[in-house]
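hi! just following up on the protien thing from before. the input was this:
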Amino acid sequence: MSENSNKVAIITGASRGIGAAIAERLAGDGFTIVINYAGKSSEAAALAARIEQGGGRTLTAQADVGDPAAIGRMFDAAEAAFGGVDVLVNNAGIMRLAPLSEVNDAVIDSQIAVNLRGVINTLREAARRLRSGGRIINLSSSVVGLYPPTYAVYAATKAGVEAMTHVLAKELRGRNITVNAVAPGPTATALFLDGKPQEVIEHLTNLAPLERLGQPQDIAAAVSFLAGPDGAWVNGQVLRANGGII
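and the predicted 3d structure came back as:
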């Protein structure tokens, strides 16, 4: 039996893309998976069915990460169903790009609400409620470091996530809980590919020395390492899973 078989992982924004890949990988590692989603209930249900067909245990949990009460209810549901929570993966995020001189308030507010405030909400709840020996893994982005044009607001929210990663790792002293972040580079998901011309995609594909886009499974593998026994001594770090792009 896997040493993760009695552990419970909440993954935000897990119904598709990188989040779904993380859910399937951690389920394969033996974790019970709480599939959080904002609005795609059919996608969350399909993911749960795939995991359960493979012998895994799941719970789907609709919650807007920007709503602290909804986050509390999600933790309540996980505790009621499975007895507690051991791992939080903060994957939910949105990316809306514009030059800083042209960015409108709606674009600013929506990204702060999900990418920054949403992570504050889940981190606060996890800091109060995660069981001893737990793991928190935040999703940042390698645009923190690359800082390309049009990414100012998005990069600012992810830089905030990295700052909170470092601080919370220190605040949880004595709890045996690690807090780390994974910062993907360009990864082949709908979030990344939608709206980009083919020449832009080809340019980004060739930026990394490994000359390909990341796949959701590449990011899931990094999360699996940090969530599993081999990641126990890694704490307060940002792991750039990007093929060497920076």
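The chain has one domain: 8-184+216-241.
The mean pLDDT is 96.
cheers
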